[in-house]
Amino acid sequence: MSSSVAEHPAASDDFSIVGKSVKELRALGDHRHLSLNDAEWAAVQAHFKLLKREPSLAEIETIAQTWSEHCKHKIFTSPIRYTEGRKTRTIKNLFQETIVAATEALQKPWCLSVFEDNAGVISFGKKWALAFKAETHNPPSALEPYGGAATGVGGVVRDILGCGLGAKPVLNTDVFCFGRPDYKGFLPEGAHHPVRTLRGVVAGVRDYGNRMGIPTAGGGIWFDDDYRLNPLVFCGTVGLLPQWAVKKEVKPGDLIVAAGGRTGRDGLHGATFSSAVLGADAPSSAVQIGHAIIEKRVLDALLRARDRRLYRSVTDCGAGGFSSAVGELAARCGARVRLEAAPLKVSDLESWEIWLSESQERMVLAVPAKNLKALEAVFAAEGCETAVIGEFTRTGRLEVLHHANAVVDLDMKFLHKGLPRIEREAVWNAPSATKPSGGADKKLSQALKEAVGHLNVCSREWVIRQYDHEVQGGTVIKPLQGVRHDGPGDACVIWPHTATGDMDDFSGFSVAHGLNPEYGRFDPYWMALACVDEALRNLTCVGADPSRAALLDNFCWASPEDPKQLGALVRAAEGCRDAAKGFAAPFISGKDSLYNQSKDEKGRELPIPGTLLISAIATIPDTRKALTMDFKGPGNALYLIGRTNDEMGGSLYHRLLGRAGGEVPKVCPVTALDGFKSLHAAILKGLVLSAHDLSDGGLAVAATEMGFSGEFGCLVDLDEMPRDPRIYSNETLLFSESPSRILIEIKPEDEGSFLRHFGKAAKAAAVRRIGQTTANPIFKVVGLDGSTILEESLRELKEGWQKTLPAMLA
Amino acid sequence: MNHPKVLVLRAAGVNCELETAGAFAAVGGKPELVHISELRGGKKRLMDYAVLAIPGGFSYGDDVGAGKVLANQIRHTLTDLRQFVRLGRPVIGICNGFQALVKSGILPHSNACDQTASFTVNDSGRFEARWTHLRLNIQSSCLFFKGLPEMIELPVAHGEGKLVLKSPRHLEDLKKNKSIALQYVTEDGKLLGYPHNPNGSIFNIAGLTNPEGNVLGLMPHPERFVAVQQHPNWTRQTYRKQAIGLEMFRNAVIHAR
Amino acid sequence: MSVRPLPLLTHLIEVRLRPEFTDAEGAGALMLLQGSGLSSIKETRVCRLYEIKGPLSGNQVQQAAKDLLCDGVTQEFRVLSPSHAPLNGMNFWRVEVWLKPTVTDPVGETVRSAVAEMGLPRPDSVRCALVYRLVGRSTKPQIEKAFSKSLANLLIHRCVVSEAHP
User: Whole-angstrom Cα distance, residue B68 to residue B59?
Assistant: First the structure.
């Protein structure tokens, strides 16, 4: 009786499209929240015309889901007619030609899996590998900050569980972009105030990550009012897996096993929704509340089953639910699914709802029949439900049955390769360089106070303390550093001994980020380079090896249907390519989230600033050589690595003054990497006491932070700074945000060996002693004319730095 | 050398079991991760072990109250726990494990069945992770503290760690029985409020022991300080380099030998 | 002849912190409500309300409440009648914030299995609400508005505001 499969999907579910006009199809799509465009509708129509039948609702939903921006990244892989100045060229596949091309050119043998699995994988020692992935959960977090952010964490953790044969999560990261918490303007109906978004998002990340027992120890927050309607929530996870578990394969005949949470009506249309422009009529089903403990049970059971090699492949149910998960696993063979076998939360689900539901905490496994009993026992022991929902076939078709009715019968080739590519227009006009203008000068002491108290610089302790950043006992360099454990670290270092089970192996890794949408307002190309540079110099500062760094890209952009937006995106992607090549740091995975724009209270479109998050991971052979950014003692020498240029465009200082124009910082990757590598070698020799990167607020902010974290002062002579000789302004030297610069502290007796060593290693990077640390916690600066231009109490500066965020939240 | 068997209890949402087991292994114990369902089904027996550890985490999501569901399971499943304690075998409950020991009435008096203490939400209203200075009660007979300095540092990470008592007279009992195992203090040993006392616990109590000293429950995480570089200031020269958490596990293993 | 199914009983159990304990959650909620325009509210305490549907007798519900839902030291509980009528209380308000039926309720799911584990009949469903008891002069629309801006998201929550006993 098992062959009583209907000829084609049941007529009752039919969804008539053949013969419908473009207008009718659009209306149908709007009605059902399907984000298929005209060309895609035409392709679907043609396909079913050829089959001489109408599609079922489940089929249309499956196609829409699979082809959605969230699942396919169709903008990045579609042809683009790109015009820059007077030149126009066609980019066939932006993703291939920039990000992937750079990785392929670099050919790093330690990249074990790039761009194909749920996460990128690099080797970690001889036995182990690290999987790293970052994702956004923007529209759900805008609608329901707590649930949206929590399920964002849950989702990226499942990506790691579903990477290779499953990795153990050892670190979570979180990066947010919000409107300013003190935003006083109007908001459209349905939009949450930025302060509520911040509170909810932080609580969501906290509750899910803490419950899962994964340390959240890296990240950042960027405030800009243009994010007020479209907050960005980036969740990242690093997982550890044995190298044998990196590869996975499905064999026809393997059983399709669903594990974890039950399937309900939650999250329907989450994937299509994520690419639709956010509106007040958002479907409530797009938002969910996560259930971390179910996912923890899945984690515990899955890794036990993995180590007994009970399954051959695994992936997570993310956007598109079963349809995507099974579709992905079966892409090269085929699958037959029986929906009635899926455990449900509520009994009245329709076929397409079961198939497309995005209920959280679910994984799909490919299990050889002989292992089923053992696998079920492992999951049952953890109190985790499993169900056989079908089997993989060799038919090349995706067949879905519900109580013997065929509800989906699609050709895998059409589903995965049938998406029509639409050429889009992109335009980029390089802004003409302008001299800085506008705004009034501030007293240096006032500017410094405002800089350290600025929302994008101030202490994040209120957030970080809410995360259990030390669970698993591996956070050897913590996000908060210094004497009182409250200074701003550049990156965390993880010693994953709990996951490896080997306390005598001191190898570890570090994760850092780069993000600065302000530079993107000048030129997204230089923003991309600056982001990669920032991530790598942060890694270098804590002792990670900059020549063993791998990158993730996360693009968050407004609508690519606007040629200017798309042009800026192309520019950023090309910056990523050149940065990866220049720094010899391959991209291993990435994601994009487009259409981040909404109508404001007056009905005007408010796009987010083009935002690129670079997440970098690098290994550290011996975590006992890692270091922190706080001054370690008085009388030590301060060296500045890297040249300071007149690059104030997009700087924090200009924003404080309300000044426009200027040069955006430009990176020279070869020189930068030379400096990072030389510094790394000096750190390995134990010659460096502390290191801190110069970013927002330049030297002034970096020295202040190192001082108040270590509770020592310093004396800095600006005339000693390696710099463009045309700079005559103390302000520029103090606040310029030239990239690739790091301030380091060295014992006087080590200066000689440091210089000998650095001189030998560094061919191009500048380095120079610019001052020394002092016992008194005072930040003192000697200006170009030899007089003292600044003398500020670090205690007071710290107070200002600490109070900004709590004051706005109270 | 014999390696005492340590039962490291697992349940849904427990998440510090691996580092706890790792700490016992590092000092010569033989830890075994045992799921509470294995004890319930009779597959494993508590009395076959020399030490019991209930690790930290969010058992059952801490829904209903931190450690509450696990405490109920301990009452109903680990019926031989009281005998285990009476035999003087070491029991340690860390963070969520401490909450479960208190809510199941094992602490502070393992021979009375009544729950006399409990936990509420931190005074700050938030989950917080931070390193704390602690003073050990060197007068208590707690076997985990043998040879340890009076002043130590350990990290806490919890949202519901404020210890409260059923009535004020219980505080006198605790003092009299030397049940107060450790207290949150300032760097120079003073009993002050937030953030030194991270949750607002009564009398700055961070951990309790039974009068016999073989059961220890504490909110701070000793298993997160088993190597020098886990301390927040290990990169500073002024820091005295000793991983104090490890010594607590060593004492339990030595005692069980 | 068909067998009549057991009536689906609905039990409501309210668990609250005893008055002698400080309610940090309540203090946090009060701050948020005041920030959302409810400056007239002077005090807020938070309790939990469990709606248990299933074949449990009154005694069994009492047992579940006492041994599972309520902490023996810090909390007290009462079983409410399903149609607990709002009462007139001058300046006392009660706001129940429920997750909408389509939204996953993790706490409810934990309670459901924990009740069964105690040897009691497995409930068909358990939902959990947060109940805010407010002290202060206000109006229902004001309270609804402030909640929708702070403690409840009407996309996933259902808010029930009533006047209450002190």
Answer: 8
Q: Is B95 a catalytic residue?
A: yes
Closest-CA residue of B relative to C107 is B63
Q: How many CB atoms lie within 10 A of CB A525?
A: 25
Report residue A247 as tokens.
Answer: 């590869």
- pLDDT tens per residue across span A114-156: 999 999 999 999 999 999 999 999 999 999 999 999 999 999 9
| pLDDT one-digit tens code per residue, A560-585 | 999 999 999 999 999 999 999 999 99
| Local structure of A585: helix, strand or coil | coil
By CA distance, what is C119's nearest residue in B? B76
Peptide bond before residue B108 is cis, with ω within 30 degrees of 0? yes
Domain total in chain B = 1
Residue from B223, B231, B247, B255 carrying the catalytic annotation:
B223
For residue A286, how many other CB atoms are within 10 A of its CB?
Answer: 24
**Residue C1: inside a domain, yes or no?**
no
* A572 touches A565 (CB < 8 A): no
- For chain A, domain boundaries: 629-810
pLDDT digits (tens, 9 = 90+) for B48-81: 999 999 999 999 999 999 999 999 999 888 889 9
Q: What is the domain-level CATH number for residue C158?
A: 3.30.1280.10
Class of domain A629-810: alpha beta
pTM: 0.95
pLDDT tens-digit readout, A585-624? 999 999 999 999 999 989 999 999 999 999 999 999 999 9
DSSP A529-554: HHHHHHHHHHHHHTT--GGGEEEEEE
B127 to A503: CB separation less than 8 angstroms, yes or no: no
Domain of C133 in residue numbering reads as: 10-163
Establish if A810 touches chain C: CB-CB under 8 angstroms.
yes
What is the per-residue pLDDT across A409-421, written as a single tens digit (0 to 9) for each? 999 889 888 888 8
**C-alpha dist (Å) from residue A147 to A21, A49, A597, C31:** 39, 42, 21, 21
B142 is catalytic: no
CATH number for the domain harbouring residue B173: 3.40.50.880
Q: Which residue has the tokens 């790293």?
A: A132
The single residue of B109, B133, B158, B221 carrying the catalytic annotation is B221
Would strands A128-136 and A232-242 be described as parallel, antiparallel, or unpaired? Answer: antiparallel
- The answer to whether C106 contacts A293, with C-beta atoms less than 8 Å apart, is yes
β-strand pairing of A405-411 with A397-402? antiparallel
Element (H, E) at A314: strand A313-316
Residue C120 lies in a domain: yes
Distances, alpha carbon A78 to alpha carbons A349, A467, A791, B35, in Å: 36, 40, 56, 51
Question: For residue C99, which residues of chain A lie inside 8 Å, CB to CB?
Answer: 289
Which residue out of B16, B17, B19, B95 is catalytically annotated?
B95
| Contact (CB, 8 A) for C50 and C15 | yes
For an interface test with A, the pick among B19, B223, B235 (most A C-beta atoms closer than 10 Å) comes out as B235
Which helix or strand (DSSP H or E) is residue A769 part of?
A: strand A767-774
Residues of C in contact with A284 (CB under 8 A): 100, 102, 155-156
Distance (Å, whole) CA A426 – CA C71 = 62
How many distinct structural domains can be found in chain C?
1
* Mean pLDDT over each residue of chain A, to the nearest integer: 92
Q: Is B223 a catalytic residue?
A: yes
C73/B63 touch (CB, cutoff 8 Å), yes or no: no
Collapsing DSSP states into helix, strand and coil, what is residue A286?
helix
